[in-house]
Write a structure and sequence with these properties.
2 copies of one chain form a homodimer. By secondary structure, the first copy, chain A, is of the alpha/beta class. Chain A has 16 helices and 14 strands. The first copy, chain A, has helices at residues 15-26, 49-61, 67-84, 91-102, 107-126, 133-136, 147-159, 186-196, 230-238, 246-254, 277-286, 318-328, 349-352, 356-367, 394-404, 430-443, and strands at residues 3-7, 31-36, 164-165, 170-172, 178-180, 201-206, 227-229, 259-263, 272-275, 295-308, 342-348, 371-384, 411-414, 420-426. A 7-stranded mixed sheet of chain A has the order 3-2-1-6-8-9-7, sandwiched between helices. A 5-stranded antiparallel sheet of chain A has the order 11-10-12-14-13. In chain A, helix 2 packs across helix 5, helix 7 crosses helix 8 and helix 12 (318-328) packs antiparallel against helix 14 (356-367). The two termini of chain A are 39 Å apart. Chains A and B meet through helix 9, strand 10, helix 12, strand 11 and strand 12 of A and helix 9, strand 10, helix 12, strand 11 and strand 12 of B.
Chain lengths: 444, 444
């Protein structure tokens, strides 16, 4: 058994948190590769070290004095080193950083030092070798992540190291210039290491015990999701649930490495397992009590434009012309539910971006529909569950719950072999609808 | 009050039926314009006069002796004339027909004689002027119905005739050459006359008391539909319900003339009114007991192809490329329900026409989806009802009924402001599903 363990910023914000992390790693010898983030907030008004680094470098770039700002950053690390009782100092590291800031090494380099330094401390604390991500995570000349080169560089390095610390968030071009992933990028590093090392599990340690079945701001104390498939997760996240970034899931997904979301502050909690649909079925069958649905997510502010035209189906290319117009406006539509002689276009208000009237004029002049109907302020809610649609009565439960809650259904979309049913409701009914669905499937 | 009354072939198959028709027309002085079909079947093993005419003309065209065949046709008319006690004969008419058959006047001309002769008898029987449709219903040089010219020709003629008989099914080119509508075309003639004469109602008399809420082969003694909007009717007919042909509805619809389907054998029955949505609302509010739904129709043998591709929504033009492939295969898709990262294409097996494997190969090579899922033998069922979707609980009732009947739902499609909900079920569940929906909405 081999595991990659990635720790988020809040898990590494202080010496106290570092100790929890150390206990977690030492308690399981299979936790061999450690991907740390930079120190996060110690309390709600604190500043993340990464943000401190960006601010500090901004001064450097403007040729202003940044020594006090850099000293503050160093203080964060020194506090951790001291708290852990380590016999090390970052003198030479900070000298190098100061010099590189003066040489305008770039904001990517600056930001990456948060993870880099935390990695050095982590390696010392655990007694693991430190592998600089700049040496093993490669970007190509266009600035895109070079998966193949990275995979081979990392594999070679990790084969020589049974245990290692690889800082998250950054890599480098072939010439060594540091480049970072988008923020939250340590999750990506963890996933890349998981793939390269062919581990059995990628543990992603954070400050929550996995994902919840619904937004806790809408549903009181929602249950935790124990097992979720990649596809389900993608659907929940698409609909607004705050989960891992897609880029962070991709490498683990293609290597079929399960991702386990864990809570550093509650290490006994098994958290959420993100797995392939095949593994999901196995795991779910082992769960003592499993709800029919995996989760509910939704998002507000969509507009539904319905075009009616008699004998539309005989007018070849009608839908393609709609899509052509949307393309002209650079709009990615959400859904295209169709009836007989009607087709509806569901678009986010964000994509419409104030151009609705313009778009309607285009529709009118280029498609010549008999009528156009517009409903604004629609929320979409996805009720997600692996193989849910194959289970009899799911739709009945869903729509009965909505009817009893007095929610009007403005749109339904469920493709064949889907994992979910998407309903459109008025924005105003958004919370009520999610609460009703949750009650019907989870609390009933 | 002005009405056009059109009578189907079974309503005019014999002198006995003619008498019923005469009583109907004479009982209401507003029934001013009469559009007769050709004599239909008198009993289940009988032959329609139109079919006799086609067969007779086929002989003529092959330079064979057709006198016996023509004599049989004449016998049908003579029987009616005799039964009605009319003092007239068709000697000169049949002489002309015989001559024109020999001159190979065309099968359209031949077929049209069924309505032409019946119109002459009807005019004599009622004492109404006879207007030959060849003089007032015009086709353009390409063989398309010329609505504008017809409208003005007919209007002028009808203004001079308070009452008239206009035979159905045919018209003529400018040069007088007869051309027929597609079969069942007397319905079209009725609708054209209704529009030109600006009548208040177009009564379409047939052998059933209007439309039924469901197929009587599936649901036992389904209730009659009293009022249906054009749109609802279109949806029901699209889904397989046997109603008026779209072309027959169009002229009345654009003139906003209600169409009343009536039963010649049960003239007291009010039948079904086909009206604009606005009129439908008025009429429905006057009905003593009105069901939430207007009707249920469905049809079998569809295939659902679901394409799954991670992050599909970020791949601009994905759906357009699907439609492009369908275009290459000359396929009109039925629906395009979409989920997150998935889009399903619903096509009739008839449109696929044995090329499914080929199409899947195209999808695979041109779209590179992560996976393709195919479900064959799907039936689509539309539950239709004006403003049904705005009524709370409709979806709940529908899906609960299907769940209780043990029907698996394979697809749902409901656009915003739709009149209907379309569900996909297995072909095997087709009857069961329709019965369950009918029970839930009508019998409950």
């Amino acid at each position: 058994m081999k595991k990659v363990v990635k720790f988020g910023g809040s898990s590494l914000a202080s010496a106290e948190q570092f100790k929890k992390v150390g206990d977690i790693i030492r308690s399981d010898a299979s936790r061999r590769y450690v991907v740390p983030s930079a120190p996060g907030k110690r309390h709600s008004k604190d500043t993340k070290v990464t943000d401190m680094l960006y601010a500090c470098y901004a001064l450097a770039e403007a040729d202003k004095d940044f020594s006090a700002a850099l000293q503050k950053i160093r203080a964060r690390y020194d506090e951790i080193i001291k708290g852990l009782g380590l016999k090390m100092n970052l003198d030479s590291e900070f000298k190098t950083i100061e010099k590189n800031f003066k040489d305008k090494a770039g904001s990517d380099y600056a930001a990456s030092r948060g993870e880099y330094l935390n990695g050095i401390i982590m390696a010392e604390y655990l007694g693991f070798p430190f592998i600089d991500a700049a040496e093993v995570i490669r970007f190509d000349a266009k600035g895109n992540f070079d998966a193949d080169t990275t995979d081979s560089l990392l594999k070679t390095r990790l084969e020589k190291n049974e245990y290692a610390v690889v800082p998250g968030f950054y890599g480098a071009y072939k010439n060594g210039t540091v480049k970072t992933f988008s923020r939250g990028g340590s999750d990506i590093t963890g996933s890349i290491v998981a793939k390269a090392a062919r581990v059995d599990v990628y543990e992603n340690w954070t400050d929550v015990s996995g994902f919840l079945m619904a937004d806790p701001r809408i549903v009181k104390n929602p249950k935790q999701i124990r097992t979720v498939s990649y596809k389900e997760l993608r659907e929940l996240s698409y609909m607004g649930a705050s989960v891992l970034h897609e880029d962070a899931i991709y490498p683990a997904r293609i290597a079929d490495v399960p991702i386990n979301i864990r809570n550093t502050n509650d290490p006994e909690d098994p958290g959420t397992m993100i797995v392939s649909p095949e593994r999901a079925e196995q795991l779910i069958s082992g769960e003592s009590s499993r709800d029919i649905i995996t989760g509910i997510a939704g998002s507000k502010d969509f507009t539904v434009v319905t075009l009616y035209k008699n004998m539309m189906s005989q007018e070849r290319g009608f839908v393609r012309r709609i899509l052509g117009i949307l393309d002209d406006y650079d709009i990615n539509f959400e859904h295209l539910p169709s009836g007989i002689d009607t087709v509806s276009v569901v678009m986010s208000n964000k994509q419409i971006n104030g151009r609705l009237d313009e778009i309607l004029v285009e529709f009118q002049s280029r498609l010549r529909p008999d009528s156009i109907d517009v409903i604004e302020n629609i929320a979409q809610i996805a009720t997600v569950g692996h193989k849910m649609s194959a289970r009899r009565g799911t739709a009945a439960t869903l729509f009965t719950a909505l009817a009893n809650a007095g929610v009007n259904i403005r749109m339904i979309d469920q493709g064949s072999s889907e994992l979910n049913i998407i309903v459109g409701v008025d924005n105003n009914d958004f919370n009520k609808a999610i609460q009703a669905i949750y009650r019907a499937f989870v609390e009933a």
